[in-house]
DNA sequence: CTCTTTGTACGAGTTCAATCGTACTGTGTG
DNA sequence: CACACAGTACGATTGAACTCGTACAAAGAG
């Protein structure tokens, strides 16, 4: 069966294989522990929705630091939101030296909630 | 019980046509006004997730009153949650005499966020 | 009319999350 | 070593949302 595509023809978000020998991920829920309520709550915040969407659309196989997102918020606020995403099971974070890089757990989320990431990728930020 | 999974991965939750001459719906957002953040926030509450899921799986072409759901909460709490669902654009409510009946806006939600309702239908409530 | 039923409106208490300043830890560089 | 840098931990404040009691409104039955 071919990968799922959304109604408007947007290509489905696909998972890339991870190279071995990476730093271990920070504490996160296992795939089967990821709960829909928690994921939806995490994604109901516009800033976190922006973060996940940007990761999905622009990340090109690399993890990214907080700074890469260009978010105009103090560091302590960003820590809060990245932690919320990780603890909900949406992102994985790894420590590279003094940087902490994030990527979306695409394979896990597609397995658990097929189609959800496509909705995030198609999302249009409010205002403007 | 209707099957919820299809061979092609398209939304399995189907919209039924509405008969004419119904009471007018209570105030609700238009399709294009429905926002993903708001919908996700509304669905991040386990009780509301239960309500929507039950409507999707057991509603058989009829609208339902608050009492039909068998929720062990005071009436004022139920009013709160049904209002939240309606104002998010997830459900439509109509006044039938002294009853206020709800159903999910399946067509609108499938058009706006394809696949989302399938995730709700497949959800497993916690603690079981 | 009264009584019952279904649900709302309002308000209070409580809980929880978002925001962010400050202080701090750990890592790499010169 | 000292210093810069990425990010955390902690705590305070704020505001929103959940919960629910009480009082009230509208509709139908008798």
Total helical elements of chain A:
5
The order of strands across the largest sheet of chain A is: 1-2
Count of spatially separate domains of chain A: 1
CATH architecture name of chain A: Orthogonal Bundle
Could you state the oligomeric state of the chains shown? homodimer
Rough outline of chain A: globular
* Rg over alpha carbons of chain A: 14 Å
The overall strand count of chain A is: 2
- Percent range for β-strand residues of chain A: 5-15%
Kindly provide the name of the CATH class of chain A.
Answer: Mainly Alpha
Distance between the termini of chain A: 39 Å
CATH topology (fold) name of chain A: Arc Repressor Mutant, subunit A
Structural class of chain A: mainly alpha
**Stretches with pLDDT under 50, minimum 5 residues of chain A:** 1-10
Would you identify the CATH H-level superfamily of chain A?
Winged helix-like DNA-binding domain superfamily/Winged helix DNA-binding domain
Q: Percent helix among the residues of chain A?
A: 25-40%
GO molecular function (chains A, B): DNA-binding transcription factor activity
Region (Disordered) (chains A, B): 1-28
InterPro entries (chains A, B): HTH_ArsR_DNA-bd_dom, WH-like_DNA-bd_sf, WH_DNA-bd_sf
Biased composition (Pro residues) (chains A, B): 17-28
């Amino acid at each position: 069966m071919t990968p799922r595509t959304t109604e408007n023809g947007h290509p489905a978000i696909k998972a890339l294989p991870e190279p071995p020998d990476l730093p271990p991920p920070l504490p996160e829920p296992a795939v089967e522990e990821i709960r829909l309520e928690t994921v939806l709550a995490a994604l109901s915040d516009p800033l976190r929705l922006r973060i996940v969407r940007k990761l999905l659309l622009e990340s090109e196989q690399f993890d990214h630091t907080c700074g890469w997102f260009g978010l105009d918020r103090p560091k302590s606020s960003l820590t809060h939101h990245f932690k919320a995403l990780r603890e909900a099971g949406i992102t994985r974070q790894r420590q590279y030296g003094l940087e902490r890089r994030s990527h979306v757990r695409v394979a896990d989320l597609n397995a658990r909630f097929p189609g959800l990431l496509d909705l995030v990728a198609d999302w249009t930020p409010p205002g403007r």
